[in-house]
Structure formats: C-alpha cells, structure tokens
Amino acid sequence: MNLLFLHGLESGPHGAKYQALKKTFGQVISPDCSGISDHRQRLKIILAEVKNREGVFLVVGSSMGGLMALLLQQQIPERIAGLLLCAPALHREAAKGLTADKLPPTIVIHGRQDSVVPIEASRNFGAPLLAVDDDHSLKNSLPLIIRETEKLRQQLTT
Q: For residue 13, which of 32, 51, 72, 145 is within the disulfide window of CB 3.0 to 4.6 Å?
C-alpha cells in the first residue's frame, strides 16, 4: 500500500507532517502543489503522480491537502483505501456537497484552537473526528497523526 501525503495551501510537500510520516513509514509520495490555490490544478498534479504508481493509497491530507484527498477519492475511489484528514479545508467552496458517505475508512483530526479552518466544518462532515487541543498546524499532534496513520494502515492490510 502506498502512503500519499497531500500538503496544505501555505506549506510544501516536505514539511513537518511529511518528515514525521517518512521517518516512521519510509517511502511517502508527496506531490508538490506549492503556490497553487486552484483545486482543479492541484488535482491534475496529484492525479499525474498517482497514475505513475501501482496499487492503492492511504492518503494523509493536511488542510487544503485534506480537501484534495477527498476530491482525489471522488476521481479514483477504487485506488483510495483510506483517508486521514488533518484540519481539512472543508469550509472552501470546492468542498460543498462532500460528505463522509461512501468513503473508505476515514479519520479526521482537527485542532480546537484552529483559527484558519473552522472545526465546525469537520464536525459537520460526518467522519469520525478526533478534536485535539492544538492549532491549525497540528504540530503538537504529530504523534497522534502517526498513531492514527498506523492504525489505518493495519486496518487496511488485515
């Protein structure tokens, strides 16, 4: 199973979450969508990266990357085995109509002190939500992100 990390709008493909995932799991695919705010352009880049790989994906998406994970899952549902969404940008226009119905195993982690993406969007989404005492970066929640990624990986490979 491939591990795919999708970064946020104002971050890059090799930030703290990527580094923590790589240190724990080894190979992590992380397309570079730096500076691209249009979700359609991001999706093209991500799809091009995914098409070059075989197998299914466990996707960890952060902020805008969380929204992109859901849009990717809509495009190629047969290739997305699970989703871990970190403060997903579900408040954006491109998220309208997205729900947790018919998703593969999905966990949402969102900081109660997030001043960038309202936690209410994650609460209303319908997937299991882990609300944490953290801000949008979730930097204090990296161990939890790693644990939940491992739990999903184990669940999906058994």
A: 32
